[in-house]
Amino acid sequence: MPITPSSSCLLAAPVRPLSAPFSPSQQVNEAQRLAVEYVGQEGEPGHERRCTTLLAALAWTHCQFSQIGGADIKLARRDLIQHLARSCREEVDAEALADTLASLCVVNARNSQFPGSSPVHVLLAREVLATLDTRVDAHELLSDLIRSLSGEHDNGVDELYRSALCAWVAIGPQEWGDKGGRAIAKDRILNMADGKLDLRGLGLDCLPELPAGLTSLDVSCNNLTELPALPVGLVTLDASVNQLTQLPELPEGLTTLNVCVNQLPYLPELPTSLTGLGVRDNRLTKLPELPKDLTWLSAYNNQLTRLPALPTSLTELWVYCNQLTELPDLPASLALFDASCNQLTRLPPSVLSMPHDGQVYVENNPFSPAHLQRLRVATSVSRYSGPQIHFSVEAADVSIATARPLPEAVRDWFNSNEQAQVHRWRAHSEEAHAAEFSLFLDRLKVSVNYHAGFKMAVASWLSQLAQDGELRQLAFQTVQGATESCEDRVALTYNNLTKLSHAHAVTRGEYDARLDEIVDRGLGAFRLDALEKIARKKAQTLPLVDEIEVYLAYQVQLRDRLKLPTDIADMRFFHVSGVVPKDLRDAEQEVRAQESAEFPQYFLVEWEPWQQVLARLDPEGTERARRKLQDILPAYEQEMAARLANLRLPEDPDTQAQVGVGIMKAQQLEVYKELTREFLRKRDKEALMDQIMSTGGNLTPPSPPAGWPAFG
């Protein structure tokens, strides 16, 4: 747009015409000084944004003020000042810089020998680019920016903003071919709709100035170390998974803030409108005052030592894995609270006022036995209407803090004449998770189960692990976290390892010559799975629960009664499990009832080790069974429709799914019954088929465990 110079203060003292590059005039020197002062130094907050702002200003002023005659120069000066002020630091005079740039441009316009970017513009652009880690040519960049100014926009501020975006793309790292992350971001900014802007996962290390009208911004999963000033109308902000070390002032209307997985040591003042706050995985040592309408707060994996007062509106709070030693009063509205893995010695009385369907997780805290007893009494009264509290018995019995070299931990399980076994383990000392496995063995050795028979069983198992790399890797992975609490968790983990080892042995063919033992292993796995489901249901009914103790209680107390394939015969903290004799009687009856109804389906169809046995020893029969299952698929829909009609059930998706599963299971069972019966007949083991189909009804249970009344 043509501009007519006026007698404004901007042109009160025009500079002398520039006749050569790099003029030593006072105006040029002043422009250089102000430009460098404006952009600052590399590494300072907002430095790159100020560089792009000034580069855009150089291109725009060249176009505007070089077109003498027509427009009010005051309007152009106003737009330029507004543009520069957006990124300007407090100590810098944006008006002085705008006046100097305009003055130089008017002089350049009168000097017709520089129709393009003038030497002064190139000089200033080069000064700006020198503060950046870039090889962009100043003359080429200015020429490109000048060409990008279409002149179609009446609003100079908008045109300046577009030019700054172009500069931001030009000086950024080049990646993704010709369409780098910055170019994609620029396109999305210029085409923003409904105030929503998605810039996640673009590999951005810096953001431009954000557009006006922005209400929702997602810049997660980038490499940002800072954020620009946030628009006043911003409502939601997701800047998670970056490298932020500080946040700008937050808009008053912000309702949701997610800055999880960053490097923030502190937070700014939070707006009163905030209802959701995610700050997990940072370096926070404290939190600011929380807004009164906050409904959820995720602040786990920080270094918090205390919490501020909690708003009465709060319904969900995650603060696990911090350094909390005490808690404030918990609001009655709180439905989910997780403060596991802290240093809490007590819970505030207000925890009992949380909703009845609320969940409290405080595992791995050093609660005293006296405090746990008080909680147990409070939650055991008939009128208790508070939440379910999940705790774990603290490993106060643990004297082993660090892992020994793995061969040393293994040596203790073998007799002096078996030390050759120990030498095999030297080769495994550097394998992944070997240290955790060593600590697991030491914790197992100081448990209540350690005796001669148990030692022999573990030694035999270790001999298997030494020769089987796949099983050893599975064992090393399984013990992760097993030593973080009491020895009962170690014991339960060992039971799980025993079950895993049995299944692995069947799968590898170690029982191929002992098919009857495979059935026994399958039955043991079925019973353990059934008890796990029963224990899970029981744990859900207890107001104060350590799930480890509940699961282990059923396995230990019913080990002999159900002939469970486990070596753990005792546990340290049965008294806190909440499992009573009636629970054990009911569990035994339920397991036996399930055996009669469900074991054939479990063993023949669902138990993967048996499927591996069939595939290995009878590949032709297995292939015939697979084809047969495929052949009956076309009749599946017809049978399901007929079943729904006979039962007068609606043909909605949920009902169809339930009926369909039943039909499919029945078809699979018939196919694998036929396959297994023929497989066993060829080996003169057909009697095993009758055992599989009738297991549960033909077993004579042994005597009940010592100390318990008869279960009958």
TrEMBL record:
UniProt EC number: 2.3.2.27
GO molecular function: ubiquitin protein ligase activity
Active site positions: C486 (glycyl thioester intermediate)
Domain NEL: 405-695
Keyword set includes Phosphoprotein: no
Keywords: Acyltransferase, Host cytoplasm, Leucine-rich repeat, Repeat, Secreted, Transferase, Ubl conjugation, Ubl conjugation pathway
PTM characteristics: Ubiquitinated in the presence of host E1 ubiquitin-activating enzyme, E2 ubiquitin-conjugating enzyme and ubiquitin.
Pfam families per the UniProt record, alphabetical: NEL
Cellular component GO terms held in the UniProt record: extracellular region; host cell cytoplasm
Protein name per the record: Putative E3 ubiquitin-protein ligase ipaH7.8
Native organism: Pandoraea horticolens
Organism taxonomic ancestry: Bacteria, Pseudomonadati, Pseudomonadota, Betaproteobacteria, Burkholderiales
